[in-house]
Amino acid sequence: MADGKLEKYRGKRNFAKTTEPTGTSDGGSNRFVVHKHSATADHYDLRLELGGVLKSWAVPKGPSLNPADKRFAAATEDHPVDYLDFEGVIPAGEYGGGPMIVWDTGTWAPMGDPAIDLENGAFKFRLVGEKLRGGWMLARLKGKPNEGEKSNWLLFKERDQAMDIEGDILLDRPESVKSGRLIEDLVATPTPSKKQAKPQPGKRVGAVKKPFPTSLKMQLASPADAPPRQGNWLHEIKFDGYRTLAFLEGDTARLITRGGLDWTKRYGGLPAAFAKLNCREAVIDGEIVVLDDKGISRFGKLQDALSNGAGNQLVFYAFDLLHLDGWDLRNVPLVKRKLLLAQLLSGHIDTRSAIQFSDHVEGDGTPLFDHASDLGLEGIVSKRADSKHTDGRSKSWLKIKALKTGDFVIAGYSDSPANGGIGALAMAEWVGDDLIYRGKVGTGFDAATIKSLADRLGTMRIEDPIEGAPREILPVKPMLKARIQYAAITSDGMLRHAVFKGLRETELTTAPTAPRQRIVSDADLAGIWVTNPTRRLFGKSGPTKLEIAVYYAAVGDFMLPHLFGRPVSLFRCPTGKPQDCFFQRHPFTGMPATLASFPTQNSEGEKQTYISIEDAKGYLALAQFGVVEFHAWGTHKSHLDKPDRVIFDLDPGEGIAWRDVANAAVHLRAGLEAMGFVPFVKTSGGKGVHIVVPVTQKLGWKQTHSACAAIATKLATTGRDTFVTTMGADNRKNRIFIDYHRNARSATAVAAYSLRARPHLPASTPLDWRDLESIDSPSDLNYSTLPGLLTTSGDPWADINESERDLTPG
User: Fold this and answer.
1) Residue 210 is a catalytic residue
2) Where along the chain is composition biased (Polar residues) (predicted)?
3) Which terminus of the chain has fewer CB atoms gathered within 10 Å of its CB, N or C?
4) pLDDT over 60 at 2, yes or no
């Protein structure tokens, strides 16, 4: 066991004051770490996992990749294996007091027997880290051992491919590989003393005595091209997560999103962490994130955590304090608010805490911005140190994205047999209904990616080139999207310094449903026929008439159960031109023989006849008639006046992004479930989301519409700054309109899996709730991508008919 070896380490430390690990792990792997440590003197600590502890050497000048540099290394006490991941500030007055970062880490391997080599004073080993690699040697110096330890050594690099005789790795790579921070970024959080056990907000100029607020507006940063270099500015790392206000009252914390939604219950154990803070009440502004193994916030990991249950994975980075113990601090200068915040958090956070203080650097923001760019971080936020809190967007807070990253359509490629089949990709962007060429991308590919892309794009070739592309570009269907990192878009619309970062592809959760039941038979598939099969719809970059027919055949097994027997309206585009499209609500001359129709009458006694789909043949034949969209009633013709599905259409107004809509839908799901319903979700095929609720056939249309109005109104009260139930574009600016008016007799909504008549034909796609937040853009679910996804995921609405609940009259 390692415990006996750690007596000296533990004897030097007061673990009631320092957050360093006491040492509970015996390890079992060959890991190493190099810490950069700013204590009495700046130095580096090399630690190798061996025999259940970390054998440690202090290297004052740090390691060098130049074999000619022989660096002095003093052996120090063994450290616990837990110390491999330690990064933080050792309190002043404690042994080794000062900031410490994980400068490098990885695995190591001895070149001989380490015990014998250490005893003999010639210890060779190899490192595989992010900065240090290849062969190294520790050679013990002659002389009298210090206190019985063989303490004085030289550390130097072996001559191999990993050596560097020109560069200086310490200057070139000063950052932590764990968090990306410089050691200068770590500032000790003020430690409470007996004289100041807690912050004193009332003594700050600008503080106003006020009751605890039930809600507050967030201050938002304005975009900028570069960070300020002069002036009184604070610069912070920009996090990639959910902006959140924490309202603390006693032992209770409410976590409110930027849109005003209460997501406390979604955030697992995080709310409980705020109960430890020494205050009666507070409002703290921050960002909720999930960190990767390098300590960098990744939004994808946050989405995964929330979809699968947050648990204890979430971290709240606090960067502003707006109210504390009866004092409104919004008119206090930011730098003073942050000092109060640091004092409030002092003594309650360490490197493993669920709450962290978002520290800053002052003055010129360029070094931090360059550092963020090198590490692939989101960027930085620059804030005027003397600024007061401002509701909404302001110029006193600036957000500067590191390198720009965007998603662009692959519109073609240049052939290069010598390079595996692809020389460069032609990138494009949808602007309205037009696909606009944005230039070529020829870097960022490895051999495997080139081969994979060449195989896929070779099957997607089309004849019509994209306008503006060079002659050597071989055009392809504009269906794949790539994530591109670039410096800027030039004045003529071209990407500058573009690098390929990967395909943007959507994956759907495999649904635990029954095996797929075949409705569209092989004979039906073989019988697909359309005139003018190569006619392109919606422009020269749009799909062909045959491709639309093939799409509906491919998704028929999933779509038809949600269409059979329901009154439908067809959106027909016979010429492929948007101006020629029209709705077909009633039977028409020459319609497929197997397409059904049935008579009914409205509430005023007017007789009308509607269309319904009864079999696969009639459904597949509609492609010949230019049918692009299917819209269905929320009922079946067998109980026409008693709806069995109601829909809440979330229609975003100006200023609402897709992520906000997805978040809102998840929030409303919880509200509907609390009412006893089982809600299902699908994209609208546009910017919105449809929440569909199956109900028992007990109420008529008027009662159903009234009940849905009452539900929508109640749901809207849970996010008054987010939702609106009043129609009109002006009412929904920066709001999401909960449209319940589709729940009226003869009103329709776009059917599950129906395409939408737009250039890249997105589909109104049913989703597992776990997938909703992971989708970057609903347009990624389209006529080209969706059939393949469904074969592996199944229909997440397979159980919708078994999930009916009673709807209470409004």
Assistant:
1) no
2) 16-28
3) N
4) no
